Amino acid sequence: MRGCQIQRGILFGLLLVAGDGAGADAPNEPRADSLSEVVVTASRIPEALDQLPDDISVVLGEELRARDAWDMASALSLVPGVEAPAGGDAGPSSAVPSFWGLHEFDAFLLVVDNIPWGGAFNPAITTLDSTNVERIEVLKGAAPVMYGATSFVGVVHVLHYPAGEAADEADIAVGNYHSARGSAAFALPQWGDYHQSFAASGESVGFADRRENVSDGRLLYRGALDLGTGQLRVDANLSIVRDVPPSPVIREGTALTTLTPLNANFNPANAELNENKYQLAIGYSRPTLWGTWDTLVSVSHSHVDDIRAFLHPDLSGTADTQDQNRQIDDDYFDTHLAGHMFGDVVLTVGADLLYGYGRQPTLNGNSAYTVPLNGSVLPPPTTQLPVNEFGFVSDRRLFAGQYAQLDWKTGTRWDVTAGIRLNETDESKFSSDLTLPPFTPTVQFAEQSASRREIRPTETVGASYRLWADGKDEAVLYADYRDAFKPSALDFGPDYQPAVLRPETAKSYEGGLKGAVADGRLNYQAEFFKLDFKNLVVATESGFLTNAAGEQLRGAELESRYWITDILAVAANYSYHDARFTQYLFFDIESNAYVDVAGRELPLSPHHLASAGLLYEPREGFNATLVATYVGRRYLDEENTAPVGGYMKLDATLGYRLGHYLLSLEGNNLTNQRPPVSASEFGSESFYLLNARTLWVRFGYKER
């Protein structure tokens, strides 16, 4: 009882201090209206958010640092309709974002400082640098025509501070499971007309699974030289990723099995997901008589070592191992001209090229070892196990396009946009597979070369209309239509997949209302959407992939934020998603038969998503943030026979800032929920769980 009284007394004292801080530090004016935020994702040119006929959410870097949102899962936790649980097949440094109820790792586009990050193959989340972020722009729906055939349901654009600017902060943090991390970002001294900045971060993070670990380091250097009437820019990125992956949990019947402990790890003793990535970008922009001409070139190279194992779904304790060595080149070029051509009409014309080359040998040990399901035995390393399958794949991808987008603003009410892109995709793939007894009765060898070339347009058209405006208050009605396609992804898995499949296609429709009331303090966006998805890639009875399914995504989303004072805000978001198969003959391993699942809900796609946040961010004294996210009931399987209940996740920070210094206590997943959040594409009927509760103590320094 006395402990409860002490806790209540401390809480009351904190509220008093917070109230004093708010009164002394905060005028009665809200922060800058979020609808006036300038964004670039939809058009490549700076435009106010309220003028665009698109659903875009903006997460400012200041808020990310206040919430200590250092991974994608926490960074996007207050974006409506978006889930991004950490982990998945790409390792604990990664995440599996979903938009509009679609849980597919490759269905969205990740852009970093105007460059598709891993765009030729898969979003490169593991090497994403979250230090020194100025803002994150999240666009729902297919990528704009300026970014090509790379996204269906969303674009996440991470923008760092430009050269010569920075967050000017440094911090270190220690946490449970023997975790530690640190970061720093500062503007460097200016040399004449040359501006520069630098950011670095590193972490060693443990988990409830004592073998699982993240040990990463990232560096980002940005420079810019004022050259004549233009500017020359250079970015250099270095990412070092050293992950030890967890084991997904197998579904047994209608629920996850209870035969394996919650944090058991059945990977081989030398399991790792290691990556070294080097990236260099050079850009140049200058004004011309016809507008601003901008050119950007980026080259990157990655080396990945991927060693792990997956239990057989029969829960016999037998595991298949894989030992892969992957090389990936991912290059990008874009040049475009944007300017006022006819009065209020802005025309953007350009061309881009996305080149990717990946090669991977894989050494597989099918049924390599059998271990107890209680996790009491450390499996042997792959170096001590026989190899009975040798695979190889090399894939060259060339995605080119020419695009034009028209933006016509008529007075202060109408904004009409229309874009078209001619896509040219060319892919060549070579695969081979050698199997040895006892995996096959005799030595068997197969190889195949395949290629596919596609030339087709994609289009988008949208319009917004300002219904009314009064000072900082307004209401804007908008709608858009997009026709998109995307070449099938290459997951670099262990299985022999020789074909180059047809592109997946989608048509989407959006309509909504956005605006502000209460003198700009309350901002809101509400939208309805529908997306028809065809040529979906699915697995057949033999395990080969094919284009044989369709989906429809529809629903509604609401985003709102109310600034009570300049330093105190509350956010509330809600989404309703209805994501279903429209065509799919699913092969059920248990019944050894095909099942028509048309009309069934997509796995792991909840109807209801909600999030709420409290952000108290004074310049001095106590500060606090609280973010609650709710994910509703969903199914683990395509036949909708394995339901799993909803859950709520809580993240919070409580700190004190004195001058340049900050001391903060922080927690993620405070309720310690452990539901399944993403499915493995490599382990049949296997699911990754939400990370266990983590607690941190952070010490920070801010220069200004």
Largest sheet: 22 strands, antiparallel, barrel
User: Low-confidence segments, ≥5 residues, pLDDT <50?
Assistant: 1-33
Treating each run of at least 4 consecutive H or I residues as one helix, how many helices?
A: 3
Percent helix, as a range, is under 10%
Output the CATH topology: Maltoporin, Chain A
CA(first)-CA(last) distance? 43 Å
CATH class reads Mainly Beta
Q: How many runs of DSSP E, i.e. beta strands? A: 39
Second-tier CATH architecture: Beta Barrel
Sheet/helix structural class: mainly beta
Beta-strand content bin: over 45%
Rg computed from alpha carbons, rounded to a whole number of angstroms: 25 Å
Mean pLDDT: 90
Characterize the overall form. globular
How does this structure look, described?
With 704 residues, this protein is mainly beta. The protein has one domain: Maltoporin, Chain A (Beta Barrel), CATH 2.40.170. The protein has three helices and 39 strands. The chain has a 22-stranded antiparallel β-barrel. Strands 3-8-9-6-7 form a five-stranded mixed sheet. Strands 16-15-38-37 form a four-stranded antiparallel sheet, with no helix packed on it. Strand 37 (676-679) and strand 38 form a beta hairpin. It starts with a helix and ends with a strand.
